Amino acid sequence: MKPCSNHKLLCGLTISTLLVLAGFTSSFVFLTDPAAPFSIGSTSSAADKASSLDPRFGEYWYKGEAEISSYHLRQARYGEEHEGDAVLIFVTEPFSRRKQVKVDQPAGGEGEVVNVLKLNATKKFYTGIYPYSVMVSSFSPVEAPNRPLKITATIQEWCGQVFTQINWRKNEYALESFSYFESEGDQKTKLEDVWLEDALWNQIRIAPENLPQGDFRIISGTVTARLLHFALKPEAAKGTLQTDSDSSQVYSLEYAQSQHRLKIRFEKTFPYRILAWEESYPGRDGQVQITRATLRAQLKTAYWQKNRSQDAALRQQLGLRE
């Protein structure tokens, strides 16, 4: 991997990386940019609630750029750990509450269009001869990140592909699930209004102090449910938020009826970068499998404009495999 010559590149886990994030400057961005903020009136409830965010939130997230973080991944699968790459792409965008898609022109009635923080979380790894490609997308309103409007998840490998989508509809979640497995294929059901594990990552980036703690109910991560072949439903769990070091803290999630655990380590101060995570659960043989990911490198850029051959050098800066 090339050294950190790019002024936007944040490498490693040292405290010095925090200094890079301190140099914010304001700039105007057009509403056609994915990360551009929108306004639907100065009296909107969204704007009022957003004012309670960290004062640097707008400077960091509404500059027409995405934050891209690459991680060294050791994915548990089939009783072994497999090396690969994980990438977290965070970006803000205007989102339709009704259609639950990114809007082309951010104009609508009061409350129809909202700012969301979107996370595209990807994993790529090999199990023997064949590859896995995994992606989860979470769309969390900035003013209410505890209730995401939409979650989608896909897994592709040589046996086939699966797809899951969860939408917030009329005080509950609507789940649609598609799979090449007979027992999991083409299902539709309703889920009650509880926490979603896939929404915790956006909650950390927006307001980690509001992460669920103590005993509560939560719906497991969509990818984990697919890999372990269990149905998504509310489960009892316990959450804790603890200081890990002078510069980081750890959120731990432990499910009551299984040995499924998730730990996410992130910075104590804004913008609460995610530094590492660890997930564990029993495999089919009863042995605990552990997936680990640690931050490798990070940059902020309008990646949707970086689609020329010469832009492939940015992959090297992120340390991603060919």
Structure description:
There is one protein chain. By secondary structure, this protein is mainly beta. It has one domain (10-318). Helix content is 11%, strand content 45%. The protein contains six helices and 16 strands. The protein has helices spanning 17-21, 45-50, 57-61, 200-206, 222-228, 313-318, and strands spanning 10-11, 66-77, 80-96, 113-127, 130-141, 150-157, 160-169, 172-179, 187-191, 195-196, 214-219, 234-243, 248-255, 261-267, 274-282, 288-301. It has a 16-stranded mixed β-sheet that branches. The longest helix has 7 residues, at 200-206. The radius of gyration is 19 Å and the shape is globular.
Q: What is this structure's SSE topology?
A:
Elements: E1 10-11, H1 17-21, H2 45-50, H3 57-61, E2 66-77, E3 80-96, E4 113-127, E5 130-141, E6 150-157, E7 160-169, E8 172-179, E9 187-191, E10 195-196, H4 200-206, E11 214-219, H5 222-228, E12 234-243, E13 248-255, E14 261-267, E15 274-282, E16 288-301, H6 313-318
Parallel strand pairs: 10-11
Antiparallel strand pairs: 1-16, 2-3, 2-16, 3-4, 4-5, 5-6, 6-7, 7-8, 8-9, 11-12, 12-13, 13-14, 14-15, 15-16
Q: Provide the structure class.
A: mainly beta
- The count of helical stretches stands at 6
- Assembly category: single chain
**Topology as a string of helices (H) and strands (E):** EHHHEEEEEEEEEHEHEEEEEH
Mean pLDDT over the full residue set: 86
Number of strands: 16
Strand content: over 45%
Q: Largest beta sheet, briefly?
A: 16 strands, mixed
Helix content: 10-25%
Whole-number total of structural domains: 1
- Uncertain residue segments: 1-32, 38-51
| Distance between the ends | 12 Å
Shape: globular
C-alpha-based Rg, rounded:
19 Å
